[in-house]
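#struct-pred
JK: can someone run the complex with iron/sulfur cluster? inputs below
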Amino acid sequence: MKLRPHHLLCVQKYTGSGYDDAFTAGMDALVRRLTACPDTAVTLVEGRDDLCAACPHMAGSRCDSEEKVNRLDRGVLEACSFSAGETRSWSTLARTAREQVLEKETFIKVCGCCEWFGLCRDTRKGWIYGKED
Ligand code: SF4
Ligand code: SF4
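RT: done, C-alpha coordinates with the ligand placed:
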Protein backbone atom coordinates (compact mmCIF):
# COMPACT_ATOMS: atom_id res chain seq x y z
CA MET A 1 0.00 0.00 0.00
CA LYS A 2 1.18 3.56 -0.69
CA LEU A 3 0.43 6.38 1.73
CA ARG A 4 1.43 10.00 1.90
CA PRO A 5 3.13 10.56 5.28
CA HIS A 6 0.40 12.78 6.73
CA HIS A 7 -2.18 10.10 5.99
CA LEU A 8 -0.59 8.09 8.84
CA LEU A 9 -2.32 10.65 11.04
CA CYS A 10 -5.58 11.02 9.12
CA VAL A 11 -6.27 7.27 9.12
CA GLN A 12 -5.84 7.11 12.89
CA LYS A 13 -8.15 10.09 13.47
CA TYR A 14 -10.80 9.00 10.99
CA THR A 15 -14.34 8.83 12.40
CA GLY A 16 -16.33 8.62 9.17
CA SER A 17 -16.19 12.18 7.84
CA GLY A 18 -14.74 12.92 4.42
CA TYR A 19 -15.01 14.99 1.27
CA ASP A 20 -17.78 12.94 -0.37
CA ASP A 21 -19.32 9.45 -0.44
CA ALA A 22 -16.69 7.97 -2.77
CA PHE A 23 -13.89 9.28 -0.57
CA THR A 24 -15.40 7.96 2.67
CA ALA A 25 -16.10 4.57 1.03
CA GLY A 26 -12.41 4.39 0.05
CA MET A 27 -11.35 5.47 3.52
CA ASP A 28 -13.68 2.92 5.18
CA ALA A 29 -12.20 0.14 3.04
CA LEU A 30 -8.63 1.20 3.77
CA VAL A 31 -9.26 1.45 7.53
CA ARG A 32 -10.90 -2.00 7.50
CA ARG A 33 -7.92 -3.46 5.65
CA LEU A 34 -5.35 -1.95 8.02
CA THR A 35 -7.36 -2.96 11.07
CA ALA A 36 -7.60 -6.54 9.83
CA CYS A 37 -3.92 -6.68 8.76
CA PRO A 38 -1.77 -4.31 10.82
CA ASP A 39 1.33 -5.96 9.29
CA THR A 40 0.41 -4.56 5.85
CA ALA A 41 3.51 -3.13 4.19
CA VAL A 42 3.12 0.61 3.66
CA THR A 43 5.45 2.70 1.50
CA LEU A 44 5.61 6.42 2.24
CA VAL A 45 5.24 8.30 -1.02
CA GLU A 46 5.46 11.84 -2.30
CA GLY A 47 2.31 12.68 -4.25
CA ARG A 48 -0.76 10.58 -5.05
CA ASP A 49 -1.40 7.56 -2.82
CA ASP A 50 -4.06 4.90 -2.27
CA LEU A 51 -6.35 7.35 -0.44
CA CYS A 52 -6.00 10.11 -3.00
CA ALA A 53 -7.24 7.73 -5.69
CA ALA A 54 -10.90 8.32 -4.70
CA CYS A 55 -10.56 11.96 -3.64
CA PRO A 56 -12.46 14.76 -5.41
CA HIS A 57 -9.43 17.00 -4.82
CA MET A 58 -7.30 15.07 -7.29
CA ALA A 59 -6.72 17.37 -10.24
CA GLY A 60 -5.12 15.16 -12.90
CA SER A 61 -2.27 13.44 -11.12
CA ARG A 62 -1.87 16.10 -8.43
CA CYS A 63 -3.78 17.19 -5.34
CA ASP A 64 -5.35 20.62 -5.82
CA SER A 65 -3.91 21.54 -2.38
CA GLU A 66 -0.47 20.16 -3.15
CA GLU A 67 1.42 22.95 -1.38
CA LYS A 68 -0.52 22.46 1.86
CA VAL A 69 -0.38 18.67 1.84
CA ASN A 70 3.34 18.70 1.03
CA ARG A 71 3.82 20.82 4.14
CA LEU A 72 1.84 18.28 6.20
CA ASP A 73 3.93 15.45 4.73
CA ARG A 74 7.21 17.20 5.53
CA GLY A 75 6.03 17.81 9.11
CA VAL A 76 5.35 14.10 9.64
CA LEU A 77 8.60 12.95 7.99
CA GLU A 78 10.61 15.33 10.13
CA ALA A 79 8.84 14.61 13.44
CA CYS A 80 9.03 10.84 12.94
CA SER A 81 12.48 10.71 11.27
CA PHE A 82 10.92 8.88 8.31
CA SER A 83 12.03 9.22 4.68
CA ALA A 84 9.94 9.27 1.53
CA GLY A 85 10.23 5.88 -0.19
CA GLU A 86 10.60 4.01 3.10
CA THR A 87 8.51 0.84 3.57
CA ARG A 88 7.51 -0.57 6.97
CA SER A 89 4.49 -2.29 8.47
CA TRP A 90 1.40 -0.18 9.08
CA SER A 91 1.54 -0.91 12.82
CA THR A 92 5.14 0.35 13.11
CA LEU A 93 4.52 3.52 11.11
CA ALA A 94 1.23 4.23 12.89
CA ARG A 95 2.72 3.76 16.33
CA THR A 96 5.60 6.13 15.62
CA ALA A 97 3.25 8.73 14.13
CA ARG A 98 1.04 8.46 17.20
CA GLU A 99 3.94 8.78 19.65
CA GLN A 100 5.83 11.51 17.81
CA VAL A 101 2.94 13.61 16.51
CA LEU A 102 -0.59 12.83 17.71
CA GLU A 103 0.26 12.49 21.38
CA LYS A 104 2.49 15.58 21.53
CA GLU A 105 2.26 19.33 20.97
CA THR A 106 3.75 18.46 17.59
CA PHE A 107 0.18 17.61 16.52
CA ILE A 108 -0.86 21.28 16.40
CA LYS A 109 2.42 22.28 14.75
CA VAL A 110 1.97 19.74 11.97
CA CYS A 111 -1.82 19.80 11.56
CA GLY A 112 -2.89 23.23 12.80
CA CYS A 113 -3.27 24.52 9.22
CA CYS A 114 -5.66 21.72 8.20
CA GLU A 115 -9.40 22.45 7.93
CA TRP A 116 -10.13 19.17 9.75
CA PHE A 117 -7.91 19.98 12.72
CA GLY A 118 -10.76 20.83 15.14
CA LEU A 119 -12.45 17.50 14.42
CA CYS A 120 -9.21 15.52 14.73
CA ARG A 121 -8.16 17.34 17.89
CA ASP A 122 -11.49 16.47 19.53
CA THR A 123 -11.49 12.84 18.47
CA ARG A 124 -11.50 10.74 21.60
CA LYS A 125 -8.13 9.58 22.85
CA GLY A 126 -7.99 5.87 22.21
CA TRP A 127 -9.91 6.09 18.92
CA ILE A 128 -7.50 4.36 16.60
CA TYR A 129 -8.17 2.64 13.26
CA GLY A 130 -11.85 3.58 13.54
CA LYS A 131 -12.42 1.74 16.82
CA GLU A 132 -11.60 2.35 20.44
CA ASP A 133 -8.57 0.63 21.97
S1 SF4 B 1 -5.94 14.38 -3.15
FE1 SF4 B 1 -5.18 15.88 -1.63
S2 SF4 B 1 -6.95 16.28 -0.30
FE2 SF4 B 1 -7.36 14.39 -1.40
S3 SF4 B 1 -6.65 12.70 -0.08
FE3 SF4 B 1 -4.96 13.22 -1.48
S4 SF4 B 1 -3.72 14.70 -0.36
FE4 SF4 B 1 -5.72 14.61 0.66
S1 SF4 C 1 -5.85 17.56 11.06
FE1 SF4 C 1 -5.92 17.14 8.85
S2 SF4 C 1 -3.90 16.30 8.33
FE2 SF4 C 1 -4.11 16.22 10.55
S3 SF4 C 1 -4.90 14.16 10.98
FE3 SF4 C 1 -6.66 15.51 10.80
S4 SF4 C 1 -7.33 15.39 8.65
FE4 SF4 C 1 -5.24 14.59 8.79
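RT: quick notes.
The chain has six helices and seven strands.
Strands lie at 2-3, 41-44, 58-59, 62-63, 87-89, 127-128, 131-132.
JK: thanks, will look after standup
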